[in-house]
Every structure is written in structure tokens, then in C-alpha cells.
Amino acid sequence: MAEEDNTIVQMHDLRPAPGAKKDRIRVGRGEGSKGKTSGRGAKGTKKRYQVRPGFEGGQLPLYMRMPKLRGFKSPFKVEYQVVNVDALSKAFPKGGEITAEDMAKAGLVRANQPVKVLGDGEAAVAFTLKGVKASASAAKKIEAAGGSVSEA
């Protein structure tokens, strides 16, 4: 019978595989670390220092190509979500009192944003709109069908 090898591997016996642990190359740290050019090649900007962010090699940079100070955006502008009378008639066939929250639940608008009703289509039933703006033509059609519009 051959003699069996009953050695147990211990923590202090473990070593990384040969070539698995290599030192990081510290580029640009003098001749002693790597050699004459320290891994930075010969001559040129990148040998001497790093170029600044946004530098495009002398080409006119993007931030200078863009137009400067064009127009004005009012911070107080109110963007309304629009709903037509026709969409209201389809979403609420029985009519009744309708608020912006009801329209949001029906999927006509996004919640918590101002709503304006426009006059495209016909009002089939009487709507009572509360807390919603309406165009003149929409208000005329809704009132003709027996409904009303109040913004507050």
C-alpha cells in the first residue's frame, strides 16, 4: 500500500497565484520608478500636465459655441393641462360635479397640476366644473347643456 499524504492546508501556507499580484504603475513619478519618460510617452501636453475639463484640443469649445443669454423664462408662468369637452363627455357620461382630482382619477390629466377645459367637441350632459378654468367656447357649450363652471 502506498503511503498517503495527510498534510492539512493551513492559513499561513496560502499564497496568491504567481503573477496575480502586480504593483500599480505610478505614472509620472520620476525616472526611478519606471524609466526615462515614466510611462508618459514623448513630448506634448499630456506628458507635461493634464488638460483642463472641457478642453477640445484648440477647437472652439462647446460652452463657447452655445448661444449666450437668449430670451427669458418667467418663473411665474402657469402651464395648464388641457382637456376638451369631448373627452369630459366620454369620461363622465352621467355628468355631475367634476373637479381636477376627478379628472386625474379618470386618467385625463396628471394630479396636482392646474387644468383648463377647451371647447373641442360637444357637451352631451350637464357638467358642474369646480376648481378648473375653461375657455370661452367651452364655458358656452357647458352652460348650453345646463352645466356651470367655477374656478374657485
UniProtKB/TrEMBL annotation:
| Keyword check for Transcription | no
The residue ranges of the Large ribosomal subunit protein uL15/eL18 domain are 82-149
One annotated GO molecular function: structural constituent of ribosome
What UniProt keywords are attached to this protein's entry?
Ribonucleoprotein, Ribosomal protein, RNA-binding, rRNA-binding
Q: Which GO terms describe its cellular component?
A: cytosolic large ribosomal subunit
The record's Gene Ontology biological-process terms are:
translation
Family statement drawn from the similarity comment of this UniProt entry: Belongs to the universal ribosomal protein uL15 family.
Q: What is this protein called?
A: Large ribosomal subunit protein uL15
In its UniProt entry, the species of origin is given as: Bifidobacterium bombi DSM 19703
